[in-house]
Amino acid sequence: MAQVTLKNVKKVYPNGFEAVRGSDLEIRDGEFVVLVGPSGCGKSTTLRMVAGLEDVSSGTISIGDRVVNDVHPKDRDIAMVFQNYALYPHMTVYANMAFALKLRNMPKQEIDRRVRETAKTLGIEPLLERKPRELSGGQRQRVAVGRAIVREPKAFLFDEPLSNLDAKLRVTTRAELKALHQRLKTTTIYVTHDQEEAMTLGDRIVVMSNGLIQQADTPLNVYRKPANRFVAGFIGTPPMNFMDGALAARLDGLAFVAEGGEPSISIPEHRVGLAKQFAGKPVVLGVRPTGLREAIGGEKPSLIVTVDVVEPLGETMDVSATTTSGAKIVARMVARDGVQSGSRLSLVVDANAVHVFETGEFGVALTV
Question: Is the peptide bond before 263 cis (omega within 30 degrees of 0)?
Fold first, then answer.
């Protein structure tokens, strides 16, 4: 196992396109780090540079104590699992898993021990004499992981390995991968565009956009304390609601006032942070769907909304609605009968769940 370190890593293609624009990241020994972001954000390019499949334009990548910028991929002591599994179709499962070990001229007895122990760990012992065409998608994925494990590398690199699986199998395989990492404790870098996958798998998640790392932190911190508006909108399902407005200074502190004057939402003093410097200036308020609920009894509502669409989810329901100022929001509420398109609802915003950002797609978080 080894630490993986990126220092000011950039990737610029001959046509001038900057795929990665100066990434600094330290992945600790034994840590499971997930790179996540939309298509074209630079996550796969970053992974391929660590693997040696892409040249580094500038900066350094280290695995352990060794800078590997000019080290051939096969000499980096890493193992990569690809999206399409990349199994040799003419070889059995056993031969696929043993192939890299044979290239190292490892003794046959040691090869057999590693392959069979790994197959037992992954539950693929009965498949060792089959060929890839005789396997399901989930079985092929396990074989690809097994081929990486037998090498006992310093780091595992996963490039969207679950994207070809159906939804149910993705959930079960995701849990298997997490349990496997907890047993092996091998440094792991995992790339996905699925934010739910990132949240459930990673010790830390690295959110990327436009070739830049927007935030690197634990899943809960990224969810609860997004660094900017992009991260807040990307992480979380349904996404965070945003409303344009301004901050107003009041005797009891700060309040957000939406365009048009409604709603007016107080910002708790302990969460004000940098927001106090933006009194009177345009800002964006963010609140997650779970931070909205129906007003009870004579409780003063924060928002009066008109329901557009109701999506029942069992005990809860997602209500898409329009505020009096014209903003579109989604509230995840306790399910009840009588809520339908055209209904008027009085909603209360949990003041401890609100976030204030500078304007713009990457507006910095102002509240703490």
Answer: yes
Q: Which amino acid is at 205?
A: I
Q: Long-range contact list for 168-176, CB < 8 A, 24+ apart?
A: 169/137, 169/138, 170/197, 172/138, 173/138, 173/141, 173/142, 174/200, 174/201, 176/122, 176/142
**What is the domain extent for residue 89?**
4-227
Pair 152, 210 in one domain: yes
Q: What is the pLDDT of residue 1?
A: 65
Q: Answer yes or no: do 254 and 211 share one domain.
A: no
Ranges of residues in the chain with a pLDDT under 50 are none
Q: What percent of the chain has pLDDT over 90?
A: 79
* Torsion angles phi and psi, residue 4, rounded to 5: -115, 125
Residue 352: its pLDDT value, please?
Answer: 87
Asked whether residue 255 is assigned to any structural domain, the reply reads: yes
Which residue do the tokens 């950002």 mark?
Answer: 357
Both 183 and 311 in a single domain?
no
Degrees to nearest 5, angle at CA 112 with 106 and 117: 120
Taking Cα atoms as reference points, which of 150, 191, 228 lies closest to residue 50?
191
Q: Return mean pLDDT, the chain.
A: 93
At 230 the pLDDT is 98
Quote the pTM value.
Answer: 0.92
Q: Do the strands 241-250 and 282-287 form a parallel or antiparallel pair, or are they unpaired?
A: antiparallel
Q: Could you tell me the two tokens for 81?
A: 């699992």
Please give the pLDDT value at position 147: 93
Read off the pLDDT of residues 132-141 as tens digits, 9 standing for 90 and up. Answer: 999 998 899 8
128 with 267, same domain: the answer is: no
Residue in 186, 232, 224 with CA at minimum distance from that of residue 207: 232
CATH of the domain at 193: 3.40.50.300
Within this chain, do residues 113 and 216 fall inside the same structural domain, yes or no? Answer: yes
The answer as to whether 367 is a domain residue is no
Gap between the Cα atoms of 180 and 175, Å rounded: 9
pLDDT in tens, 147-176: 999 999 999 999 998 888 888 888 888 888
Return the residue matching tokens 């060929």. Answer: 131
Query: Looking at the 3D structure of the chain, how many domains does it have?
Result: 2
